[in-house]
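Justification of resources, computational component.

The compute hours requested in this renewal are based largely on the per-chain cost of generating structure records like the one below. Each record pairs the submitted sequence with a full structure-token output. That output is archived, and it is also reused by downstream analysis tasks.
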Amino acid sequence: MPIRAVIFDKGDTLSRDVVFDREAGAWRVYELSRSPRPVSFEECYRTSLEVWDELLPRRDRSALEVSCRQYQSVVHDRLGLCFDVSPAEMERAFYRTAVTVQWESGAPETLEELGSRGIRVGMLSNTIFDQSLFEEEMRDANLLRYFDLVMCSSRYGIRKPHPLIFEIALTQLGVAAQETLFVGDSPEYDIVGANAAGLVSVWYNPNRAPRPEAPTPMHEIVSLPEVLPLVNHL
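The structure output for this chain reads:
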């Protein structure tokens, strides 16, 4: 069956976080806060780390997602912090301060070529951040126009490798699993999930790590433009 769609993971596939300064992001949010009692930034930041250390293992075990807004609410309500801005504005303040991305070599050219061939293109990412932030980031880089779908686990409360989130992406793109490539760097999340949902799994391995015995990717590439011959020949 010919390939009609390609879905990409984002982090360490389409882009890389060249800066993730959690403390700077937390400080920017703290600046927006008010409180009926004095709460130091040190207490706020320490609490945020404690809560994250508690939640992170649960996300991976359950394949259920916690959104940034839920996480921030737990931290801030525990401390009694109040804000005059919306949760969306707080999340954006954190993300735009803390995160700087670099788009992967070959990404724009690959996306443009896929679109020119009439291939539907999606992005599916495990992240606590709202997908509107990724869309904004992609728009700033003039890349959003290439995507028919941008989808994040934070919107649905389900994380890869749960097959359901792959099935939602397929429905949104209007394609079948067997005619869709899924390209991602993580054997644990991307390859396991794509295989379970029946997609054609493509392991993005630019560092040429040893091929895992399990899960077994159907294909392996070391650069994003290598997706194009797969689209041609499958």
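The radius of gyration is 19 Å. The chain has two domains: 5-18+101-233, 19-99.
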